[in-house]
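User: My collaborator and I are trying to settle a disagreement about how two of our proteins should look. Neither of us wants to argue from intuition anymore, so we agreed to look at predicted structures for both before our next call. Could you fold the first one, then the second, and keep them clearly separated?

Assistant: That sounds like a sensible way to settle it. I'll keep them separate. The first protein:
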Amino acid sequence: MSIMSLRRNMLFVLFTFTNLHACATSRIADAEISSVNGTPCFTISQTEEKRNGQPLLGALSISDLSVKPATKVWSFVMSGGRKVPLSSKICLLYGDIPQGANGMPAPELQTGRVYSIFLNGRPDDPSDPTYGYRGKFCIVATSTGERKIIAIGSDTPAWKQDSCTEHSLIR
C-alpha cells in the first residue's frame, strides 16, 4: 500500500469518526406547551432550566404537520445577533413577537390540526450539546365550543403519527 493511499484511508477514517462524534453530541430537548386563555404558550421545562440554566433564544418557528409537506405557520427571528433569555417561569405566547425580533403576523390556528414548535436556542454553556427545543400540539374544540390546547408528548403514539386524537396522547 502506498503512502498516499494510506493517507487517504486515514483521512477517511478520521473524517468519519469526527462526523459520528459531532452527530452523537448534539441534542434537542422537549419544549413545554401550555395554554393561556386558549392560546398556545411555549417555554422550557423546570428540569431543563435546572440542568442548563436559561437558554438564549434566537428564533421560534411553528409548522402545520397536518399537511404534507409541512408548512410554516408563524415564526420570528431575533435581529442584530440579539437573543432572548428563556425561563421556565415565562412562556412565549403564540402571536407575540418579542422586542428586537422580525416576525410575521400569526394566523388563527385551526382545531384538529397538529402543529410543531421549534425554539431555536441554546444554553450559555458552550460545552452543552443542546441546540434547540421542540414540541407538538393540537387544538380541539370542547363540548362548550371552547378551544383546548393539547401538548403531544414525545413518548406517545400521537407524536410518531402526528395525530390529534386525545386517547392516543395518554403516556
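The second protein, kept apart from the first:
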Amino acid sequence: MKSFSYVFGFTENSFTHIHPPYHKENEGHHLVIMTCPKQVSKDMLKVILFDIDNTLLSFDGCVKESMKSGFEKFKIGTYEEGMFSVFNQINIDLWQLIEKGKLDFEELQKKRWNMVFESLGMSADGVAFEKYFRECLFESAIPENGAMELVKYLHSKYILCVASNGPYMQQ
C-alpha cells in the first residue's frame, strides 16, 4: 500500500533539508521534502506552513491547565493527570464525527464535557464547563518546547504561515 503522501500526489524532492533542533544542545535531523504536484528546487521553497495545536502551541498543556482551574472553579473535584486521557479520547472521537459530517461544532460544545464527566463518574454541568473551558483556551498560550526558537530561526529565511482547524478566537 502506498503512503498518504503518494496517494495524494506528493513527490519526493532530490534535495535534503536539515530540520533545526528545538534545543541548542541537540543536532538537527534530516527531513524529506515532498511537494505537489511536482518536484521543486530548494530555492523555490519560500513558505512554511505550521499547524498551531501541539506544534507551536501546546493544546494539551492548555487543556490540562483549563481542566485544573475549571475543576476548582466549579468545585467538582481535584484534577488528576489520568483525566486528560479521558478528555482526549472523547475529544478525538467527537472531532472525527465532525470531519465525517455527523456532528457540528455547536453539538460538540453541548456534548463534550457531559460525556467526559459521565466517563469520569462526576456530576457537573457540562455546557457551563464547556463555556468556561473555551474562555480559558482563548486566553491561554503555552508554547511547545523549542517552538519560539524555531520560529525565530526560520522567520528571516521563509514566509511563515499557521493553520488550524480550531476556532479563530482560540488561536
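Some points you might bring to the call about the second protein. Residues 70 and 132 are 7 Å apart (CA to CA). The chain has a mean pLDDT of 86.
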